[in-house]
Design brief:
The protein has 407 residues and is an alpha/beta fold. 33% of the residues lie in helices and 24% in strands. α2 packs antiparallel against α4 and α8 crosses α10. The radius of gyration is 24 Å and the shape is elongated.
Length: 407
């Protein structure tokens, strides 16, 4: 990318986004009250379609999911950039005390997706008002099913990227209440980890708890596997290319005087390179089967392959951080020293299109302990939404101005 920032990308964009803040907040709160889970979000989809109506966008909806893809055509030929917001909520019961708290029992927007939608809709309004200035097009990707349902992959399978003008770049913002409000943070290369679900079943021989010598107790075998996993990670994984393996659930038995037939482990593997991810999975298979065999038991590891590593294009990550500095101020743009071990299905898009994801801080101004994403007490500083809308708009304007048609 060119090192200069287009004149249109100035702090005035933030002022404009702040002028639209009332509508942005109203949309965010409307979505927050009515959270939906998974791939099918009919009420959220209808809300997004209503909010985009009248902007002159070419709108398509998904068939395998309730996705929305809206395209803004500029006045002149040029490149294409994709901007993404995810729309789904989490299966939590909200405990924030907000006057616009979830009205749906067992569902809550606890990861900022309601804010993501609101920011992108406002950016669409700002960019649509500049249609005559644009050379190229902006694709607005509103995606269901980010929370473990592979929604981005479904949208790719529906040929999101395969039209006559495929995106030359992709960009996404993720809100986080653990960073100071209005601060943008990102990094080159691995940004978020892969995420795989691990299920181990250990099979022994059950019997009376007073006579373990007549049985093959799967419980100590399962416990030994848990301990050995920790050694596997600390002794076979490069500390500078890390992995995290967490066993989050152990289940076995029904009562105090029965040795069970089986024990079950449930956990997750996170890694920030496909090389380490593959190496750890190979090691886990050997470890699980070998320890069980040493005790005369059997064990099987089942891997539910989750999201790939989210990898930012280095040049575009640096460029996005520069755009953030131009529109929000130098003090609001940071380089992250390390990736975060959470996962994101925007990774599927970044496997196909060079681009970047950034964190946008939304720490509440009140101070005190902060509930992170995925907490039933998570709240955000809504003032950050204007920063996100302005940044979406600035990224699109900058990219379309700097890249030649077909570039």
């Amino acid at each position: 990318m060119a090192s200069t920032t287009p004149p249109a990308v100035t702090p005035r964009l933030l002022d404009e986004a702040r002028d639209l803040q009332r509508d942005t907040v109203e949309l965010r709160r409307r979505i927050h009250r009515r959270p939906e889970l998974g791939l099918h979000l009919p009420e959220t989809q209808a809300t997004v379609l209503e909010a985009l109506d009248g902007l002159g966008l070419a709108v398509e909806t998904g068939t395998s999911t309730t996705s929305v893809v809206a395209t803004l055509e500029g006045a002149r030929p040029g490149p294409t950039i994709l901007l993404r917001a995810d729309m789904d909520a989490l299966p939590l019961r909200e405990d924030t005390g907000l006057d616009f708290a979830s009205e749906v029992d067992g569902a809550m927007h606890a990861c900022g997706h309601d804010g993501h939608v609101a920011m992108l809709v406002t950016a669409a309004r700002m960019l649509a008002a500049r249609r005559d200035e644009l050379a190229g097009r902006v694709v607005f990707m509103f995606q269901p099913g980010e929370e473990g349902h592979h929604g981005a992959r479904f949208m790719l399978e529906e040929r999101l990227l395969d039209g006559p003008h495929p995106p030359g770049a992709a960009f996404a913002i993720h809100l986080t209440p653990t960073i100071r409000s209005g601060v943008v943070a990102t990094r080159r290369g691995p940004f978020l980890a892969s995420a795989d679900v691990l299920t181990v079943t250990v099979r022994g021989r059950g019997g009376h708890a007073s006579m373990p010598h007549d049985c093959c107790d799967p419980v100590p075998v399962a416990c030994e596997i848990v301990g050995a996993i920790q050694s596997l990670v600390t002794r076979q994984v490069d500390a500078f290319d890390p992995a995290v393996v967490t066993v989050a659930s152990i289940r076995a038995g029904t009562t105090s005087n029965v040795i069970p037939e089986t024990a079950h482990l449930l956990g997750t593997l996170r890694a920030v390179s496909e090389r380490t991810r593959s190496r750890v999975l190979d090691g886990l298979h050997r470890l699980v089967e070998g320890i069980a065999a040493a005790h005369g038991a059997e064990a099987h590891l089942e891997v539910d392959e989750g999201y790939p590593v989210t990898v930012n294009d280095g040049e575009l990550a640096d460029w996005a951080r520069g755009v953030a500095a131009a529109v929000l101020g130098e003090e609001h743009s940071r380089a992250m020293p390390n990736p975060v071990m959470g996962a994101e299905d925007f990774s599927y898009v970044l496997q196909r299109v060079p681009g970047a994801m950034v964190f946008l801080g939304a720490r509440p101004q009140a101070g005190g302990p902060v509930a992170p994403n995925h907490s039933n007490r998570m709240v955000i500083d809504e003032a950050a939404l204007a920063s996100g809308a302005a940044l979406h708009c600035a990224v699109a304007l900058s990219f379309l101005a700097e890249r030649p048609a077909g570039g």
